[in-house]
Design brief:
Layout (H helix, E strand, L loop, with lengths): L1 H7 L15 E4 L2 E3 L7 E2 L1 E5 L2 E6 L3 H4 L5 E3 L4 E4 L1 E6 L1 H7 L3 E2 L6 H12 L6 E7 L13 H6 L4 E6 L4 E4 L1 H7 L10 E6 L2 E8 L2 H5 L7 H17 L2 E9 L1 H12 L6 E7 L2 H10 L2 E2 L3 E9 L29 H12 L4 E6 L2 H14 L8 E5 L15 E5 L1 H7 L3 H5 L10 H8 L3 E2 L10 H10 L19 H7 L2 H6 L17 E4 L16 E6 L2 E5 L1
Parallel strand pairs: 1-6, 2-7, 8-15, 9-10, 10-11, 15-16, 16-18, 18-19, 19-20, 20-21, 21-22
Antiparallel strand pairs: 1-4, 2-3, 4-5, 7-23, 11-12, 12-14, 13-14, 17-18, 23-24, 24-25
Helix pairs in contact: 3-8, 11-12, 13-16
């Protein structure tokens, strides 16, 4: 650690042989430019927040700078882009009880009870439980929460965000009963009574009565999320669905220099949000782009809400849920295609992917370069793969494959699971993949994304031979998916995504070369420093 800190304190060495004054010279490293020919370099120069020249050690004699950074052999990559995440929610969850990894329903409730000892607010919120990790792989019920918290609201979101466990206090406030029904959602009932588990659109009924964070708490949350992102080498995050007021709060904080991270904002699909931005038009600043709409076609596999063509293998008769009816998907696609906005649709099940891809194909016949995205593209039938291409980009999260592999075959069956998490096949038909984490569903660390993409293993190295290895990505393709291809999916490939002259000087320094290091050592790599506009925003 001391070694990193000592050399990352930018030295005040002046070179007097030239008058070419610049802001920063970086040298003596391995620099992956991720340009068109995937060149490497050893040095580059930054001026006014942009890359001025990329080359070798000769740059030291060509330019003057008060700030000269000797990498001492370390590796540099373009600033990493998370192509699908929930940045705002990451910040909000920092003030909630962490339930990820809970080994049982009781262990989950015990965490909530301990957390509540220091929580004085009117509600206790948490996220991260996953019944698939428990010995009894069934949805939890509200019973233990009711016993522990008879007078305080409790709402605990499943790890994928598509199911919510609430106590009776919330059910009463939201007037949810066993007779409550809502399109695109479900109130789970057992023995004639609500269990407290709400699926997909039914969660909105509970969310409507749970107290919202104050504006000051939202600002704290955004700053907390930025800190975590920078620590992980992320310089741009694609926020997968926010209301217009949250996006404009982010814009105001960026303009006031209180947030330095760049954000590609997807507008949550509501009439109010769409009307606001279609009237306002595409938003483009140095740090914020808003030109896309996030749509939910279906739910998630983990909660059996993904829309499938045939019933779940472990729950006959259930084919999942369409959260947005197909006719509304079709109508919205035509509307957005006529207004120049990108459509980014969450589609997990093969029925959802088929519906979305057909809607795209119909709406985009006369649009040359729409770059519409299918977020997740998780289960895609062979006959639907050809819908991807130059106009439609798969936006996938490689850690979903390694998180789900323990139970995915139970949900989908031995044959159908072979059509899931097919990243190499998707790349072959589309030419590009945008890669992300979907945090806080998964951990923020983009190195997990890289490792899962190339090794198809979880963090513990399982399975030893990799999971469905025919769909592994090469290291070069994985890095492109986290940089230049993600930038392309955001219409920003001319501004970022590679270390090239004229682009913003966003880059990350790592402790070892993930392109050449032994596969088993990839996850031991550390982010040494993250820079935005050539300025250090994080250093180890």
């Amino acid at each position: 650690m001391k070694y990193y800190l000592s050399f990352l304190s930018l030295s005040l060495i002046l070179i007097s042989c030239t008058n070419n004054q610049v802001d920063l010279i970086v040298h003596n490293g391995v620099v992956y430019t991720v340009n068109e020919t995937f060149d490497t370099a050893t040095a580059f120069v930054v001026k006014e927040g942009k890359f001025l020249e990329i080359g070798n050690e000769d740059l030291l004699s060509k330019y003057n700078s008060k700030n000269i950074l000797d990498l001492k052999g370390l590796t540099v990559y373009p600033g990493l882009i998370d192509a699908h995440c929930h940045f705002y929610n990451l910040g909000i969850t920092q003030t909630q009880v962490e339930l990820r990894g809970s080994e049982s329903e009781k262990a989950m409730v015990d965490r909530v009870i301990k957390f509540a000892e220091n929580e004085e607010g009117p509600a206790i919120l948490g996220r991260g439980w996953d019944q698939n990790l428990w010995e009894v792989k069934e949805f939890p019920t509200k019973d233990m929460l009711d016993n522990a918290f008879p007078d305080k609201m409790v709402a605990l979101r499943r790890v994928d965000g598509h199911a919510l466990l609430v106590n009776q206090k919330v059910l009463d406030a939201a007037e949810i009963t066993s007779n409550t029904s809502i399109e695109g959602g479900e109130v789970i009932v057992k023995d004639g009574l609500p269990t407290g588990v709400l699926i997909d659109n039914a969660m909105g009924l509970a969310n409507a009565v749970i107290p919202k964070p104050s504006r000051s708490k939202e600002i704290e949350a955004l700053k907390a999320a930025e800190k975590i992102a920078f620590e992980n080498g992320l310089t741009t995050v694609d926020e997968a669905g926010l209301d217009w007021d949250k996006l404009e709060l982010i814009d105001s904080l960026q303009q006031a220099n209180q947030l330095k991270i760049r954000l590609y904002g997807m507008i949550s699909n509501s009439p109010e949000n769409i009307a606001h931005y279609l009237e306002k038009g595409i938003t483009q600043t140095n740090r914020l782009t808003v030109r896309s709409v996030k749509v939910y076609a279906d739910g998630a596999l983990g909660s059996r809400g993904a829309a499938l063509k045939a019933p779940y293998s472990d729950e006959q008769g259930n084919t999942g849920l369409f959260l947005t009816p197909i006719n509304e998907i079709n109508t919205l696609a035509i509307k957005l295609s006529a207004n120049g906005f990108q459509m980014n649709t969450h589609a997990i099940g093969d029925a959802a992917n088929e519906a979305v891809l057909k809607a795209y194909a119909s709406a985009l016949k006369k649009v040359d370069d729409p770059r519409w995205r299918v977020e997740h593209a998780q289960v895609v039938a062979k006959e639907d793969l050809s819908y991807f291409g130059k106009k439609v980009i798969p936006s996938v999260q490689p850690t979903h494959a390694t998180s789900d592999m323990e139970w995915a075959d139970e949900r989908l069956g031995e044959e159908r699971v072979k059509t899931a998490y097919t990243y190499k096949e998707l790349l072959d038909v589309s030419g590009k993949l945008a890669l992300g984490t979907d945090f806080p569903v998964e951990e923020v660390n983009p190195l997990n994304t890289f490792y899962a993409a190339v090794a198809r293993k979880d963090k513990n190295g399982h399975p030893a031979s990799g999971y469905q290895m025919k769909n592994a990505l090469t290291r070069e393709d994985a890095l492109k998916g986290m940089t230049i291809w993600a930038a392309f999916a955001n219409f920003e490939e001319n501004q970022k995504g590679s270390i090239e002259v004229g682009k913003v000087a966003d880059f990350v320094i790592m402790s070892q070369d993930i392109m050449t290091v032994d596969e088993n050592a990839i996850l031991q790599t550390e982010v040494v420093a993250t820079l935005v506009d050539g300025q250090i925003v994080y250093q180890k």
